[in-house]
Sequence to fold (216 residues):
Amino acid sequence: MTDTYRHKGLRKKLAEVVAKKGIENPEILTAIETIPRHLFIPDNALHKYAYEDKPFPIGAGQTISQPYTVAFQTELLELKPREKVLEIGTGSGYQTAVLLEIGVKVFSIERQKVLFDRTKELLPQLGYNTKLFYGDGYKGLPTFAPFDKIIVTAGAPYVPEDLLSQLKVGGILVIPVDEGENQRMKKIVKLASNKFETEDLGLFRFVPLLKEKGRD
Ligand code: SAH
Fold:
């Protein structure tokens, strides 16, 4: 678990790359400059590439998202300090760390036990303390609802009803939607308990949001 000046230099460059691609929020760029992304990638052989703006495998057929995508989704959430954010798809915990650096309260769900176990151990080691849950993201977290913001970090075949209902009025859900290999990034604003406004932010590629084991 070493973090060197070289790593620090590389992530400063990564923040510049992400900024050039259109991310303006300084808090997000600072988070990218701060978080040792290589430590979120379990395969040491990949550490030398960790500050390229690319996704990488993290085991269990999953990936750590591309930094630009993490930044883009985070920017769409329009976060304010101390807001309550639900994340679906903890994975490596990198997106979780970005949210925590910005100063919001994060509740994150992961449905693959190996990833859940690893990230539950890793985040506190890096100084990130938050609530991680092993479960099915389609159902959200009714016990802790409502949330100011919800972010889904896997491609969903449709927008889960439970996530819409667990959003506060005025809240934002950011979710990549479609069953194919590519998804359309949607920003959904909850205008009233049964009224939503959806904005389409273009094509992205995610691993699929998986259904419960034993179901399809
Ligand atoms: N935010 C993560 C992205 C990981 S990829 C990161 O930056 O590393 C998406 C993650 O969603 C995977 O870890 C996958 O196991 C998880 N996932 C897939 N379906 C899910 C579901 N139904 N509920 C919760 N997590 C799910």
